Amino acid sequence: MNTQKNILVAPLNWGLGHATRCIPLIYALFEEGFNVILGSDGAALKLLQKEFPQLKSIELPSYDIKYAKNGKSFKWKMLLRSPKVLKAIRKERDLLKTLVRKNEIDGVLSDNRLGLYHADIPTVFMTHQLQVLSGKTTRITSALHRNYIRKFDECWVPDFDGKINLSGKLGHPKKFDIPVKYIGALSRLEKKEVAPSYDVMVLLSGPEPQRSELEEILLHELKHYNGQVLFIRGVVEAEQHIKRQGQIKLVNFMETQDLQKAICASDIIISRSGYTTIMDLLKLGKKALFIPTPGQTEQEYLARRLEAKGIIPFAAQERFSLKDLSKVKLYSGFGTLLSDYRVDNGLSRELFSLFKGERKLRSHSKVAFNINLFVMGFNNMFDDRKPES
């Protein structure tokens, strides 16, 4: 008889970052003897299905997150869509009840899917945003977020505890009354020594219409660039499509191994300042130019923070031009932070104790679990005692 516990791993479909950072956790669950069931919708689910075609997958209700065409309207469009999001949360909660009643799910690892908590099975909520920045409404949005987090058994933050960290005040608010496990930075990628192939690599993802808006801007500017460009559009489809526009090689998507090799073979990365992208580029020690999604306060904060620390510059989407690339050489990039670091092989076995039967957190203090990435070598570049921009 199969005694493996079924753990539902369910990332939010908001760009591809939530899905990709779940990949190392899925492999770690395999190593601990769990059976994994995938749960998401849209591009996030398609990506996980391509990475793990052998696994059962469940399509969860879509939050149907769309950006406003004008970044200044982002918050208000999200507010108008909130009834649809709340409906999706209720639907995924009802679906989980059914799956548990049928004994199909024994535990849940939810990456920002708010409805996947349950009284009868252990559930984990993973987020790097303990504080949800939204301008003047930050206090309200953060309180609403905390209200959902409390419904789960544990809250995991993919970052490092203490002053040296990646997420700044997003994952390290001054006051937070919910026990948290800092599990270290997560990345599905590994640094490889490969021959340089591209001067610039564009790495896109994220909800529409802003993904397409940035694609159009970058293609217009980069057609005048004197160098080799690899342009990953971030559109997950049934088949990979490759075409050329002059010196630009256009690819709709890449799976992990190819993407890893391509990033390692590129001198400069142009991308959104999404948190998962930051973790990936940090691990690979890359130089980059970030273009935060207009109106998305989290990405704007992370981009400003890294620029203020002299690590990665950023450019505003509506004002981007080729001359912005010249700023990259003036910043250290992530490579200088990795001269002395240690990569842990595998995640902490203790991390999954909840799914093994320990339902209650052992401590009401913040517990740090260093996993997967770097516990050394960040030096003071990430020290939050330095002023934020």
What does this structure look like?
This protein has an eight-stranded parallel beta sheet with strand order 3-2-1-4-5-6-7-14. A six-stranded mixed beta sheet has the order 10-11-9-8-12-13, covered by helices on one side. It is 28% helix and 15% strand. The protein has helices at residues 17-20, 23-31, 42-51, 74-101, 138-149, 210-222, 256-264, 275-284, 297-308; strands spanning 6-11, 35-40, 57-59, 107-111, 123-126, 154-157, 181-182, 198-203, 229-232, 242-245, 248-251, 266-271, 287-290, 367-368. By secondary structure, the chain is an alpha/beta fold. The chain has nine helices and 14 strands. The radius of gyration is 20 Å and the shape is globular. Helix 8 (275-284) links the parallel strand 12 and strand 13 (287-290). It folds into two domains: 6-188 and 345-382, Rossmann fold (3-Layer(aba) Sandwich); 198-338, Rossmann fold, CATH 3.40.50.2000. Residues 339-346, 361-381 and 385-389 have low confidence and may be disordered.
CATH class annotation of the largest domain: Alpha Beta
Morphology call: globular
- How would a crystallographer describe the biggest sheet? 8 strands, parallel
Q: Indicate the CATH topology of the largest domain.
A: Rossmann fold
Gap between N and C termini: 57 Å
Secondary-structure element order, as H and E?
EHHEHEHEEHEEEHEEEHEHEHE
| CATH structural architecture of the largest domain | 3-Layer(aba) Sandwich
Structural class: alpha/beta
Computed CA radius of gyration, to the nearest angstrom? 20 Å
**CATH homologous superfamily assignment of the largest domain:** Glycogen Phosphorylase B
Identify the strand order in the major beta sheet: 3-2-1-4-5-6-7-14
Overall pLDDT score: 86
Weakly predicted, low-confidence segments: 339-346, 361-381, 385-389
What percent strand? 15-25%
Number of strands: 14
In helices, the fraction of residues equals 25-40%
Helical run tally? 9
Number of domains: 2
